Amino acid sequence: MTESNARTGAAVMEDPAEAPMVRVENLHRSYGTGEAAVHALRGVSFDIPRGELVALKGRSGSGKTTLLNLVGGLDSADQGRIVIDGVDLAGLGEEGLLELRRDRIGFIFQSFGLIPILSAAENVGVPLRLSRADPKEREERVALLLALVGLADHTSQRPGELSGGQQQRVAIARALANRPALLIADEPTGQLDAETGLAVMELLRAVVRSEGCTALVATHDAQLLGLADRVLELSDGEIIEH
């Protein structure tokens, strides 16, 4: 274990170059106790190879958001194991989880989550400021990402001046800012019309290829599911692979 891993509690369990990007083993998560307990996940297991875009589907309340929060290190499981990019999340303390979310995982939310008073470029640059990237490198990365998502001409506009589809494109660019190994998206097209949602999903597939990352995307849209490399379905807290 390196000095850095010892300090943060990180535990590299396997060679990241050979391991899947995501490994989930026998994951359980319940809320409440006794007869009133809700069993959101019941022994969920799956792997996601590097470079895949995997769609996660399931009816409302099936546990999709719970699963995404666990994989993203935002919540803790009652039982089971999660390994992201060769790192077992159980071996990470709070500081280690914070570093994982900052450096290796990009989050895309249904509600966009943009800062209203900041321009598109400033929103995309927030993660790079938090990681203390060199200002020149930050500006170059922001410009590259906004061009990648088709918003090179909208860098100075604030979220309120952009359409829903454009705001989600900014959110995608922001999620890619620190070159994450894994993108996690929770219903990223849920607030968009069908045509715009399809365009955003196609963009996600394109950036996974161009940026060389892996993506786990929760969606219930059958048209969007067809763009994924693989589909996992959550039903009664268990995974059904298609």
UniProtKB/TrEMBL annotation:
<keyword id="KW-0067">ATP-binding</keyword>
<feature type="domain" description="ABC transporter">
    <location>
        <begin position="22"/>
        <end position="242"/>
    </location>
</feature>
<dbReference type="InterPro" id="IPR017871">
    <property type="entry name" value="ABC_transporter-like_CS"/>
</dbReference>
<dbReference type="Pfam" id="PF00005">
    <property type="entry name" value="ABC_tran"/>
</dbReference>
<dbReference type="GO" id="GO:0005886">
    <property type="term" value="C:plasma membrane"/>
</dbReference>
<keyword id="KW-0813">Transport</keyword>
<protein>
    <submittedName>
        <fullName>ABC transporter ATP-binding protein</fullName>
    </submittedName>
</protein>
<dbReference type="InterPro" id="IPR015854">
    <property type="entry name" value="ABC_transpr_LolD-like"/>
</dbReference>
<dbReference type="InterPro" id="IPR027417">
    <property type="entry name" value="P-loop_NTPase"/>
</dbReference>
<keyword id="KW-0547">Nucleotide-binding</keyword>
<dbReference type="InterPro" id="IPR003593">
    <property type="entry name" value="AAA+_ATPase"/>
</dbReference>
<dbReference type="GO" id="GO:0022857">
    <property type="term" value="F:transmembrane transporter activity"/>
</dbReference>
<dbReference type="GO" id="GO:0098796">
    <property type="term" value="C:membrane protein complex"/>
</dbReference>
<dbReference type="InterPro" id="IPR003439">
    <property type="entry name" value="ABC_transporter-like_ATP-bd"/>
</dbReference>
<dbReference type="InterPro" id="IPR017911">
    <property type="entry name" value="MacB-like_ATP-bd"/>
</dbReference>
<dbReference type="GO" id="GO:0005524">
    <property type="term" value="F:ATP binding"/>
</dbReference>
<dbReference type="GO" id="GO:0016887">
    <property type="term" value="F:ATP hydrolysis activity"/>
</dbReference>
